[in-house]
Amino acid sequence: MAHNATLAIADTERDLCQLRVAGLDAPAVSLSAPSRLAVGQTLHAVVDPPDGEFGLVRGELKALRHSDDGKRVERLETAASATAPAGGGALFDAEGQLVGILTVEPAGAQSAQAGLAVPSEALAEMAQRERAAATSYWVR
């Protein structure tokens, strides 16, 4: 079944967007905080590879990449086999909570051998970040 979607929120810096889908009646997914994650933890990725067959892939958390000040988790690094190529896929923990959204790093990036994900807490910040970006643009 197909649904029409419109762009609700864009966060280009983090390579994320939120879509509004009319007529889609589905419950919201539960989000897991990065503080609940541990290196070596089993994760499950829902991926849509180029062949068009959705899949569920089991992998593990390899590293938590923090901000320069060390206060925030900015990226989750997963086993390459669990995510490649999977930009936009969902990454879940064993309890079925969303821990991140898989992202594709630019060609030649140091992460070429690792799958990366934006932590789920970034989703909760999207509307605020979009408003701040719009305000910054108009103030200049």
Quick description:
The chain has 140 residues and is an alpha+beta fold. The protein has helices spanning 80-83, 121-124, 126-139; strands spanning 5-11, 16-21, 42-47, 55-66, 73-79, 90-92, 98-103, 114-119.
Give a structural overview.
With 140 residues, this protein is α+β, with helices and mostly antiparallel strands. The chain is 16% helix and 38% strand. It has three helices and eight strands. The chain has helices at 80-83, 121-124, 126-139; strands spanning 5-11, 16-21, 42-47, 55-66, 73-79, 90-92, 98-103, 114-119. A six-stranded antiparallel β-barrel has the order 3-4-5-8-7-6. Strand 3 (42-47) and strand 4 form a beta hairpin. The longest helix is centred in the last third of the chain and has 14 residues, at 126-139. It is globular, with a radius of gyration of 16 Å. The termini are far apart. The mean pLDDT is 80.
